Amino acid sequence: MSPEHIEEFRQLLNDEKKRLLHKAANTIKHEIELSKDDMADEADLASALTDQSLSLRLRGRERYLIDKIDLAIERINQGEFGECVVCGDDISLQRLRARPVTTMCIACKEEQERREKLYSE
């Protein structure tokens, strides 16, 4: 992979991490506290608590994505980014652009999902 592509992905990953951290900070600042309007009656309170729970659940999922972003950046730093951890082949640029945190080529990922489906049935 060319140095230009590596820097493109480094920038993409860093930008996505910043966006997710900004959303998390915004949630903490604005969505954690319940206002008096949220507690007007039981239905309003239930709705506010449901919204708050959903927001926190989404931030939890985003935290998992931030961890994957950190691992992808570490792979860039180690010179391993874009290399499938299973077979060692290069991961296509199209796949990396669609999912820059991926660690597997499409063939290995499809095989993994096929095995997971077999064992879940």
Give your account of this protein's structure.
The protein has 121 residues and is mainly alpha-helical. Helix content is 71%, strand content 0%. The chain has two domains: 1-81, DksA, coiled-coil domain (Four Helix Bundle (Hemerythrin (Met), subunit A)), CATH 1.20.120.910; 82-121, no CATH class. The protein has helices at residues 3-31, 42-77, 93-98, 106-120. Helix 1 packs antiparallel against helix 2. The mean pLDDT is 88. Residues 79-114 form the Zinc finger DksA/TraR C4-type domain. Keywords: Metal-binding, Zinc, Zinc-finger. A zinc finger (dksA C4-type) spans 84-108. InterPro entries: DksA_N, DnaK_N, Znf_DskA_TraR.
Features:
mainly alpha, Four Helix Bundle (Hemerythrin (Met), subunit A), 2 domains, 4 helices
Summarize the structure.
This protein is mainly α and 121 residues long.
List SSEs in N-to-C order: HHHH
CATH homology superfamily of the largest domain: DksA, coiled-coil domain
| Topology, number of strands | 0
**Secondary structure category:** mainly alpha
State which percent range the strand residues make up.
under 5%
Oligomer: single chain
Major sheet summary line: none
Per CATH, what is the topology of the largest domain?
Four Helix Bundle (Hemerythrin (Met), subunit A)
What's the total helix number? Answer: 4
Radius of gyration: 20 Å
User: How many structural domains are formed by the residues?
Assistant: 2
Overall average residue pLDDT: 88
Give helix % range.
over 70%
**CATH class assignment of the largest domain:** Mainly Alpha
Shape: elongated
Low-confidence stretches: none
For the record, give the distance between the C-alpha atoms at the N and C termini, rounded to a whole number.
39 Å
- The CATH architecture of the largest domain can be given as Up-down Bundle
Domain DnaK suppressor protein DksA N-terminal: 6-76
GO molecular function, one term: zinc ion binding
InterPro entries: DksA_N, DnaK_N, Znf_DskA_TraR
Domain Zinc finger DksA/TraR C4-type: 79-114
